[in-house]
């Protein structure tokens, strides 16, 4: 009898524990989010089934977004929506009331949908409008082949809500399926399992089985071809560019292997890159399974492919383990720069890696100086309340974040640091992390067990760069500086001394022109190295910046700058040059070019330059 009682009690305890565990699993524990109207602790989306038509004639997307939701006894679910025409909403297949709240310039509107406490699915029938910011519709002349139109999306940071009504917060992870209908002569690709060839009817089906943040849902439609690099890597591009892209990115499989050797298995099955038209606003965007990339990285010598290593690294830092809010953006980018540079070191050696790191260090110095009147913006953990999260997407997150991690590595030793990072990615896979969560994890799993004291709080929560920063050195850069001084002192150029220079060495050479450099020096360098006509976009950017700074007008450089600004939409490049015009009291010249170029820019780029130049249309 006692055994039976004991067994019954034990069984009851086990069942009770299991029930508690299930209840714990249902507990929603999302942090406060200032860039989304969603209330995920009450009701949250878990899966999206998207069915849309892409209409190039009206430049709209229309269709239905159906969500599987998790419901904590809620009477409504709130989605983010901006510049969308909401036609009708259903809950479990029946029409249900909905309201759109007050419009906010940055956040858009809350879409509040009436549900029952047992509602499992909602469907939103909608159309995009001509104000939709995530979409860029390109006419044939704006593409490489100039034969067919093109469409691409850019969701980061909070623009997915402008083409899909959604809970647009990075801490909300969902899986998705999609059916996309496009003109028969075009192909659609997404951040999902992708087709390699066109279908007969222009209908495409997609599946993303791993849960991702909404900003990573991406779509591109164009006349594209696919070329494999390996069994799990390859490139999409327009016909005239696809062979060049395949050649330029031929080390993609080596990069994946190097990354896996560092921090564990690649969990996304396929790593492809799509080369977009030049108006794409970023160097790359790490959309899972399909990185979106600018054509400006195709230099013909693989010298700018660290960008591909960067986007690949995001498959761990960003896509696998994601910043919970945009205030924690450095967790995505600082880690990714660190990982990128480790990949580049593994493939191309320490010299190349340190040169890339030093260029980032120079960018960081300039960024800190630019924020001298807003020192709080130089903290890693930001407070972007009432600000556009794009304001935090700068060298602080990227390069201060990298410097913090590199300094940590040097303090604790690479072996321990690598083991820590590998475990960090494994433990937090397919989840989101706050800055505070990372700091706790760092203290508990690296610093305290090894008895290491480190000024983590100063690095993360204070402005500026702490004094214990790692010092990055490059003998190759010292050689560049000596060569530059020699050329200026002797007023002559020995081209043989630069024959084997990489892109990084050329960038360092140009960036280090002294304030006192003369027009004759600039002309001499331009004649010797044909800098004005360079096909390397990064070299072009820093050279054009110097010509603006020093009033050099040789070799039709002004026309080349204008052509560059009209043709290229990469925000980093164009903002650097417009900033140079503004810094040198040449705003009228900048505006004259910008009025011609603006129509070619994605809204992400245009919004930045509008603010910079005070452009009102």
Largest sheet: 7 strands, mixed
* Unreliable stretches covering 5 or more consecutive residues: 1-26
Strand content: 15-25%
Q: What is the overall pLDDT average?
A: 94
What does this structure look like?
The chain is an alpha+beta fold and 617 residues long. Helices cover 39% and strands 19% of the residues. It contains 18 helices and 21 strands. The chain has helices at 2-26, 239-248, 252-263, 306-313, 330-348, 350-370, 395-412, 414-427, 435-447, 456-461, 475-490, 503-511, 519-529, 537-549, 557-567, 571-583, 587-597, 603-613, and strands spanning 43-55, 60-71, 76-81, 84-91, 94-95, 98-100, 109-114, 121-128, 135-138, 150-153, 174-181, 187-190, 203-212, 219-222, 224-228, 233-238, 271-275, 284-285, 290-293, 321-323, 431-433. Strands 5-4-8-2-1-11-13 form a 7-stranded mixed β-sheet, with no helix packed on it. It has a 5-stranded mixed β-sheet with strand order 15-16-17-19-18. A 4-stranded antiparallel β-sheet has the order 9-10-14-12, with no helix packed on it. Helix 14 (537-549) runs parallel beside helix 16. The longest helix is centred in the first third of the chain and has 25 residues, at 2-26. The chain is globular and about 80 Å long. 45% of the residues are buried. Mean pLDDT is 94; it is low at 1-26.
List the helices and strands and how they pair.
Elements: H1 2-26, E1 43-55, E2 60-71, E3 76-81, E4 84-91, E5 94-95, E6 98-100, E7 109-114, E8 121-128, E9 135-138, E10 150-153, E11 174-181, E12 187-190, E13 203-212, E14 219-222, E15 224-228, E16 233-238, H2 239-248, H3 252-263, E17 271-275, E18 284-285, E19 290-293, H4 306-313, E20 321-323, H5 330-348, H6 350-370, H7 395-412, H8 414-427, E21 431-433, H9 435-447, H10 456-461, H11 475-490, H12 503-511, H13 519-529, H14 537-549, H15 557-567, H16 571-583, H17 587-597, H18 603-613
Parallel strand pairs: 1-11, 16-17, 17-19, 20-21
Antiparallel strand pairs: 1-2, 2-8, 3-7, 4-5, 4-8, 6-7, 9-10, 10-14, 11-13, 12-14, 15-16, 18-19
């Amino acid at each position: 009898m006692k055994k039976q009682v004991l067994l019954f009690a034990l069984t009851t305890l086990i069942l009770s524990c299991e029930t508690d565990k299930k209840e714990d699993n249902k507990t929603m524990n999302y942090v406060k989010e200032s860039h989304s109207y969603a209330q995920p602790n009450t009701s949250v989306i878990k899966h999206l089934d998207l069915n849309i038509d892409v209409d190039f004639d009206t430049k709209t997307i229309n269709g239905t977004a159906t969500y599987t939701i998790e419901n904590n006894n809620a009477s409504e679910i709130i989605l983010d929506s901006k510049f969308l025409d909401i036609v009708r909403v259903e809950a479990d297949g029946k029409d249900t009331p909905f309201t759109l709240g007050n419009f906010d310039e940055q956040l858009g509107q809350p879409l509040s949908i009436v549900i029952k406490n047992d509602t499992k699915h909602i469907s939103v029938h909608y159309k995009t409008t001509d104000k939709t910011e995530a979409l860029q519709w390109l006419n044939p002349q704006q593409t490489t082949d100039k034969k067919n139109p093109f469409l691409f999306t850019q969701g980061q940071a909070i623009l997915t809500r402008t083409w899909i009504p959604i809970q647009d917060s990075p801490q909300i992870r969902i899986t998705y399926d999609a059916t996309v209908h496009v003109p028969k002569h075009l192909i659609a690709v997404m951040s999902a399992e992708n087709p390699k060839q066109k279908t007969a009817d222009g209908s495409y089906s997609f599946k993303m089985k791993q849960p991702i943040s909404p900003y990573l849902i991406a779509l591109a439609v164009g006349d594209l071809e696919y070329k494999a690099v390996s069994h799990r890597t390859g490139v999409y591009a327009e016909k005239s560019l696809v062979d060049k892209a395949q050649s330029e990115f031929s080390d993609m499989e080596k990069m994946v292997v190097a990354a896996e050797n560092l921090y564990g298995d690649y969990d996304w099955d396929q790593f492809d890159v799509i080369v977009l038209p030049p108006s794409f606003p970023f160097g790359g965007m790490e959309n899972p399974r399909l990185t979106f990339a600018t054509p400006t990285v195709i230099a013909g010598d693989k010298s700018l492919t660290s960008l591909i290593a960067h986007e690949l690294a995001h498959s761990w830092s960003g896509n696998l383990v994601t910043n919970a809010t945009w205030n924690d953006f450095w967790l995505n980018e600082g880690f990714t720069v660190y990982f990128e540079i480790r990949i580049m070191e593994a493939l191309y050696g320490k010299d190349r890696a340190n040169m890339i790191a030093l260029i980032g260090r120079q960018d960081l110095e300039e960024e800190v100086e630019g924020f001298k009147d807003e020192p709080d913006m130089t903290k890693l953990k930001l407070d972007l309340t009432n600000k556009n999260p794009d304001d935090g997407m700068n060298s602080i997150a990227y390069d201060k974040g990298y410097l913090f991690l590199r300094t940590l590595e040097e303090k604790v030793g690479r072996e321990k640091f690598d083991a820590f990072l590998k475990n960090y990615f494994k433990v937090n896979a397919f989840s989101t992390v706050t800055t505070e969560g990372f700091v706790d994890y760092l203290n508990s799993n690296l610093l305290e067990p090894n008895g290491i004291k480190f000024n983590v709080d100063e690095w993360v929560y204070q402005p500026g760069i702490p004094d214990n920063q790692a010092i990055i050195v490059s003998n190759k850069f010292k050689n560049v500086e000596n060569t530059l001084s020699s050329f200026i002192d002797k007023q002559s150029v020995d081209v043989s001394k630069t024959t084997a220079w990489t892109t990084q060495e050329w960038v360092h050479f140009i960036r280090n022109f002294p304030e006192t450099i003369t027009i004759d020096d600039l002309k001499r360098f331009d004649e010797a190295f044909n800098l004005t006509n360079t096909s390397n976009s990064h070299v072009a950017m820093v050279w054009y910046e110097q010509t603006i700074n020093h009033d050099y007008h040789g070799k039709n450089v002004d026309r080349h700058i204008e052509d560059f600004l009209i043709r290229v939409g990469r925000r980093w490049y164009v903002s650097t040059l417009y900033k140079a015009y503004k810094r040198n009291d040449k705003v009228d010249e900048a505006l004259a070019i910008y009025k011609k170029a603006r129509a070619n820019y994605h809204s992400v780029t245009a919004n930045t330059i509008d603010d910079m130049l005070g452009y009102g249309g």
